[in-house]
Amino acid sequence: MMMNNIENLYFSFKKYIPKNIEILAVSKNQNISSIEKLYQIGHRDFGENYVQEIIKKYNFLPKDIRWHMIGKIQSNKIKYLIPFIYLIHSVQKMEHIIMINKLARKEKKIINCLLQIKISDEKNKSGITNKEADKILESNTYKRMKNVNIIGIMGMASFSNSSKKIHDEFSSLQKLYNNYKNKYGHYVLSMGMSRDYSIAIKYGSTLIRIGTSIFGNRKKISI
Questions:
Q1: How far apart are the C-alpha atoms of 50 and 47, rounded to whole Å?
Q2: Where does 61-93 have alpha helices with state H?
Q3: Distances in Å between the alpha carbon of 121 and those of 111, 147, 176?
Q4: Residue 113 CA to chain centroid, in angstroms?
Q5: Which end of the chain has less Cβ packing within 10 Å, N or C?
Q6: Do 6 and 216 touch, CB atoms closer than 8 A?
Q7: What does the pLDDT average to over 183-210?
Q8: Residue 110 lies in a domain
Q9: Whole-angstrom Cα distance, residue 188 to residue 180?
Q10: HSE (CB half, 13 Å, CA atoms) of 142?
C-alpha cells in the first residue's frame, strides 16, 4: 500500500523515538482527514488547544481516540471536556481542579490531569511556579478529591536559538518531576515539541507533543 505524506512523516519521525516515549500528535488546525490517516495506521493519542475544536473532532472521529487537552482551559468550558477527555495537560488553578472533580463525580469518572509549570521567562508561556504546584499537591482540598488525579507535570521551553537556555529549562522541570515522582508517584513528564523534543528526551520526558514533524505545516482547519 502506498503511503501518503503524513504516514511517511510519522514513520520517519517515530523510528528515532525510544519506545518508552509516548508521542502525542498535536492536531490543532489539522483537518479530520489528516487525523484519520494517522488513526488508520494505529496512532490513538491526539492533542488539541481549543475546546470547541476538540469537541467537533470528537464528534466526527472514532471513539477510541485518546484526546488530550493541551491548551489553556476556561472555567465555563471544562464541563464539555469531562465526558470524553483522556488527559488534561494544562491545569494551573485549584479552582479548575475543584470543578473537574465535581463534574467528573457526576459522570462517575476519574479525570487524569497534569500541572502546567512555567519554566520559560517568555510572557506568552503560561504555567504556575514550583511553590504554587506544591501548594496544590499538599492541600487537604486536593487530597480529599476522588474524581481527579494529578499524574505528572507539563512545561514548555522558550522559543530560543540558545541550546543552553532550553537545556536549563528542561533540566529544572526534570528535577521537579523527579521530586514529585518520588513523593507522589507521578509518572508523566510532558515536555518537548517538534523544535526541541530531542533535548526533552535527554531530560527524561515521557511524553512529547509533536505537530509539524508529523503533520507538516499547520493548515486552515476544514472539518
A1: 10
A2: 78-81
A3: 30, 33, 17
A4: 9
A5: N
A6: yes
A7: 97
A8: yes
A9: 10
A10: 18
Q: Is the pLDDT of residue 220 over 50?
A: no
Residue with cell 462517575: 108
CA 61/CA 48 separation, integer angstroms: 14
User: Cell 508529523 maps to which residue?
Assistant: 214
Rg of the chain, C-alpha, whole Å: 17
Backbone φ and ψ for 146, nearest 5 degrees, come out as -115, -10
pTM: 0.94
Query: Which has the closest alpha carbon to 115: 73, 170, 161, 82?
Result: 73
Which residue type occupies 222? Answer: S
Over the stretch 129-142, which tens digit does the pLDDT of each residue have? 999 999 999 999 99
Q: Which of 25, 52, 32 is nearest to 223 (CA)?
A: 32
Determine, yes or no, domain membership for 129: yes
CATH number, domain at 46? 3.20.20.10
Only one residue has cell 536559538, namely 161
Tally the domains of the chain.
1
Contact between 203 and 170 (Cβ < 8 Å):
yes
